[in-house]
Amino acid sequence: MRGNNSFTEKIKTLEEISETVEELKKKGKKIVHCHGVFDLLHPGHIRHLAEAKEKGDVLVVTITDDEFVNKGPGRPVFNHRLRAECIAALEYVDFVAINRYPTAVEAIKKLRPNLYVKGKEYSCREDDVTGKIYDEEEAVKSIGGDICFTEDITFSSTELLNIHFKVFPEDANDFLQRFKKEYSAQSIIRRLKSLENLKILVIGDTIIDEYHYCVGIGKPQKDNIVATKYLYEERFAGGTLAVANHVAGFCKNVHLVSLIGGKNEYMEFIKSKLRPHIKAKFFVKKDVTTVVKRRFLDPSFLTKMFELYFIDEFTLEVNLEKRIINYLDERLDEYDVVIVSDFGHCFISKKIIELLCAKAKFLAVNTQINSANMGFNLVTKYPRADYICIDEPEIRLAMHDKFSDLKDIVVKLSKIVKCPCITITRGHKGALTYFKEKGIFFIPAFSKKIVDRVGAGDACLAVTSLVAASNFSCQELGFICNAVGALAVLIVGNREPIDPISLYQFITTLLK
After folding, report:
1. Which of the four, 36, 358, 400, 469, has the lowest number of CB atoms within 10 Å?
2. Percentage of the chain exceeding pLDDT 70
């Protein structure tokens, strides 16, 4: 079908179009440029592009590449080629390009239009949660062009898709319809942005995550095993390093306290992976190794084959423990929130726990169960917490209760640990949030799409700890938790932290 339609000939690369429009400008033609996702072509788009064409002689439209559509899981609904064909089918559009760059800025600088046209919803710059309108305006001015805004009717592709297409699971859609009657994306985003002035201390275990990608090549003749061929590897800053990176996306003042081993040298790697404004203090235990978790994966579907731990079990010697405690004791009063990312790898001792519980203004705790600590790293070892974020197996193990109703277990834990606010993450089942004075809420998962679950709990802990400390409602806490979780499972390991702008865009998508 595509080959028999001349409109597809309008679709070219940015480089090809830039050469063409340069020649057209020499002939006195006025070049107009529009940019967008155009995930669902609707009357608002048609009117917008028609009005843009009236402002010049040649209309060029660039489409956001699928890779850079940051509207959350399940978007775009239509791939960039189909979106480009829809725009190219409009008679008054002269050229269409798929923009292979993250923003429109690069396209503007290549095309050098006389006029860059946006919809009237962008005329109030402050309402653009991405802030990209400022960058686009600066780029247009830098090439001697002008920017203007159309005035015709507007619709939202996201809102239309949410209403008429099954973008979200049915239970999630039902929840969102109820939720947005009480809360708006603008108010939630505004409050999330207000978290930036919180002073945060993050303490926990340093972990180096390694992904070694391999492909199976068959069974060896003499052994009943699978032989694999090494392809390549990646290394990530995991554990509490990942938590600090997530937090630092939302807060300007972040202090990280952790322990590394002296047997292997990872300090330069760690420094290169931490966000620049994180102030880090690493204590060194010379006779142990920094924890490394090496996973072997088939890259085709990110299938994990097996995992290898480089780890030592130890107790802190008295002098080292005293140094850590003295360091914390002198500084805990300075921080609004203390986030404990406890992986049970021997750093956070009983005396350190006692100090944190006694002196932290707001104490947020996660105790992870993993292969190296099964049954020995329970949240009940903390005598108090202001906020707990763990998963369902972790709370059931801590309460020695496999079968009781989860709500009853949460209330019981709240009394034991004297914790008024708890989030239980439940994977594809969503999350449960508990406020002592407000009760219990279940929030369904917003997406079934999963790339990698590693690190998702750390992301939820990081962001929801800030939210729990800042008087958000129980439902808002669960909503934000699941929004963060849906984004986190799209990231391979801890390759990158949660981007606040992507979160704001996803929240906007959810509540359209």
Report:
1. 400
2. 96
